[in-house]
Amino acid sequence: MRASRFMWVVLMAMLAAVGYWYWQSLQLPASAPAQSALAHTINECDLIASKVAAALPEQLPFQKLEKAARQSRVLEHCMQDRGYQENPDWVVAANNQAKAMASAQGISDSEAYETLRRKAMLQSDQQPGYWRKRP
After folding, report:
1. Which of 23, 30, 75, 77 is the one with CA 20 to 30 A from 44?
2. Closest CA to 70 of 88, 49, 86, 90
3. Residue 46: burial class (beta carbons within 10 Å; 0-12, 13-18, 19+)
4. Is the distance from CB of 130 to CB of 121 less than 8 angstroms?
5. Which residues, listed in sequence order, are joined to residue 133 by a DSSP beta bridge?
6. Rounded distance, CA 135 to CA 121, Å?
7. Over the stretch 69-126, which tens digit does the pLDDT of each residue have?
8. Which runs of consecutive H residues, i.e. helices, occur in 28-108?
9. Phi-psi region of 25 (alpha: psi -120 to 50; beta: other; left: phi over 0)
């Protein structure tokens, strides 16, 4: 009688442990896909650029523009230091897109191009990509 009660307790404990393990395995988040080398480099350089411009004031509109310009300049130099350069194929495609965007929004071509450039500098999954590895 005592042995069967002991076996019953052990069996229930094992069943509870297996159930808990199964529940925990369902709760684990799916592993994120590994970043490409380009995406990793963009993230590193973006962090550096953000730290450089963090102390700049941005109460006035021109200060916001100065801060954005400094961040993009630091990002560009950081990427160049790591062996990346602006992709000429992206420039051709962006110039065409900037002209259409400028006429639709009533802004200058250069402002539209710069807006596209700043956005594309931080993306690694677009085609053609803004960055390419130097030969």
Report:
1. 30
2. 49
3. middle
4. yes
5. 84
6. 19
7. 899 999 999 999 999 999 999 999 999 999 999 999 999 999 999 999 989 998 888 7
8. 37-53, 61-81, 88-105
9. alpha
pLDDT of res. 99? 92
Q: How far apart are CA 36 and CA 17, in angstroms?
A: 39
As a whole number of angstroms, the distance between CA 73 and CA 35 comes to: 24
Q: Is the pTM of this model over 0.70?
A: no
Are the CB atoms for 78 and 48 separated by under 8 Å? yes
Please state, in angstroms and rounded to a whole number, the distance separating the CA atoms of residues 116 and 110: 10
Model confidence pLDDT, tens digit, residues 32-78: 566 788 889 999 999 999 998 888 888 888 888 899 889 999 999 99
41 C-beta neighbours (distance < 10 Å), count: 20
**83 near 41, Cβ under 8 Å?**
no
| 82/41 Cα distance (integer angstroms) | 8
CA angle 41, 86, 78 (to 5 degrees): 40
